[in-house]
Design a protein that fits this description.
Blueprint (H helix, E strand, L loop, with lengths): L1 H24 L2 H18 L5 H39 L5 H32 L15 H8 L3 H7 L5 H5 L6 H22 L1 H26 L2 H15 L9 H24 L4 H18 L6 H10 L4 H11 L5 H15 L10 H21 L3 H11 L5 H5 L4 H31 L10
Helix pairs in contact: 1-2, 1-3, 2-10, 2-12, 3-8, 3-9, 3-10, 3-14, 4-11, 4-14, 4-15, 4-16, 4-19, 5-17, 6-16, 8-9, 10-12, 11-15, 11-19, 12-13, 12-19, 13-14, 13-19, 14-19, 15-16, 15-17, 15-19, 16-17
Length: about 450
């Protein structure tokens, strides 16, 4: 009990210190960086005490960490709805909404296929082979394979269309966020028609939407201000929970995944530079978002942070909202791009297939794109994305089950890349839409 109390007091003291620093510097990124360091130190120190005491401390810390994640999920749906609706409210007509949405989705599919290619190249360069894991037992069930193999592309696309808004508001479906975005776009188009056909009623609706946006944004900023404390608690949990020796036999696979993720972050930086952006400024702006995604392993919870970061980088609110929302369930660079591609690169040589041949890439990359939609359609993250890709290529799927045990370790990096891919889609889509419209690219200096 004394140890638990001491760690609670330690957390409160550190939180007060971070609060004072935040008041002086007014920099969320700086506060988050300090919180990461403190959380890691606390988490590592918990390895030195009795296991039961360590678990009790983490249970108390989880009130802050998991509570922060829950608050972000709580404000995500109102933020998505009002942000998109408010942005459409400022449009003169609905002609550009479809083009904007298709551009964002196109950027997502391009990035996830690029991630798949990067994962393939990285694994080939490291020389990993699936035969090295043949002695391990797969934990994959027949139900997992059947559930994935039975899903077709038309079914996946149909599953994105909502049938009950209130059901999606509860998050009951794996594609609930996309369903809400689609409903909001429909509501926004209807709003523009009301403003045109019934100006008086339209003006009342417009005023109500603007007032609601101000209210919701105040609520979101309150939650975002809690980021350093939530991240510190989550980081302490991460560093206290995982024992690297438990995964010694799979370190090659873990290393390949992390290296591929790092390479994809570099590719993102190159794409930013080629599109006329400053990669250093971009990563400074999104750093708190990537940190939270890494320690929380939740793309959905990162939606409010991702929207806010894109706006600070100059992405219009509508594009930021759609890209962050869609990116929580589809086009995920880590889960649907890197992860399946690493497995494909490991299996292909054992089947006598050259994974870098043009014919094979022509089959694999569309399968990656299909899998990125499949993550939303079936749920289950990287495991089901890998199942979809391997099944599409007629590859054996047993390897997927072997890596389920270490998926949480890999998932931290995957989630950070997923969220960055969604934000990159917003940035690139903004650039493409501005260029097609002949408008100058707008950037803002991050706070």
């Amino acid at each position: 009990m004394f140890i638990t109390l001491a760690y609670i007091v330690l957390f409160l003291v550190c939180s007060w210190g971070i609060f004072r620093i935040d008041q002086k510097s007014a920099s969320l990124s700086k506060s988050v960086f300090i919180a990461i360091f403190i959380g890691a130190v606390i988490g590592l120190s918990l390895h030195l005490i009795h296991a039961d005491s360590s678990k009790t401390v983490i249970d108390w810390y989880s009130i802050i960490g998991n509570g922060y994640v829950n608050l972000l999920k709580l404000v995500a749906i109102p933020l998505i709805f009002i942000s998109i609706l408010s942005a459409i409210n400022k449009l003169e007509n609905s002609a550009g909404i479809g083009k904007m949405s298709l551009t964002i989705v196109g950027c997502m599919l391009f990035l996830v296929m690029t991630a798949g290619f990067v994962g393939l190249l990285t694994t080939q360069a490291l020389g990993l082979d699936a035969s090295a894991f043949g002695h391990m037992q797969s934990t994959l069930t027949a139900d997992d394979v059947t559930k994935t193999a039975s899903v077709s592309l038309p079914q996946l696309l149909t599953s994105l269309i909502p049938t009950n808004l209130f059901l999606d508001l509860t998050g009951a479906r794996s594609v609930s966020v996309i369903g809400i975005v689609i409903f909001t776009l429909l509501a926004g188009i209807a709003l523009l028609k009301v403003k045109k056909d019934a100006p008086e009623e339209g003006a009342k609706l417009s005023a109500a939407i603007n007032a609601t946006q101000v209210w919701v944004m105040k609520m979101v900023r309150i939650v975002i201000a809690l980021t350093p404390y939530g991240v510190m608690a989550l980081m302490a949990k991460v560093f206290s929970s995982y024992q690297i020796e438990q995964f010694a036999s799979l370190l090659g696979f873990i290393g390949a995944c992390y290296l591929a993720v790092l390479m994809m972050f570099i590719v993102h930086a190159l794409l930013l530079a080629l599109s006329g952006h400053n990669p250093v400024q971009y990563y400074k702006t999104v750093w708190p978002v990537l940190t939270f995604a890494f320690v929380s392993r939740s793309s959905a919870a990162a939606i409010p942070l991702a929207i806010s970061a894109q706006e600070r980088f100059g992405v219009p609110n509508t594009i930021a909202s759609i890209s962050a929302s869609f990116g929580s369930s589809m086009g995920q660079n880590g889960c649907a791009g890197i992860y399946p591609a690493v497995m494909v690169a490991m299996i292909a040589p054992t089947l006598g297939i050259d994974p870098l041949s043009i014919s094979f890439l022509a089959a694999m990359l569309p399968a990656i794109a299909l899998g990125s939609i499949g993550v939303a359609g079936v749920g289950g993250g990287g495991t089901f994305a890998a199942l979809i890709v391997l099944s599409t290529l007629n590859f054996p799927v047993a390897l997927v089950g072997i890596f389920i045990a270490i998926e949480p370790v890999v998932d931290m990096a995957r989630t950070a890349l997923n969220v960055n891919g969604s934000m990159m889609s917003g940035v690139l889509a903004t650039r493409m839409l501005n260029k097609s419209a002949g408008e100058p690219q707008r950037q803002t200096t991050p706070n």
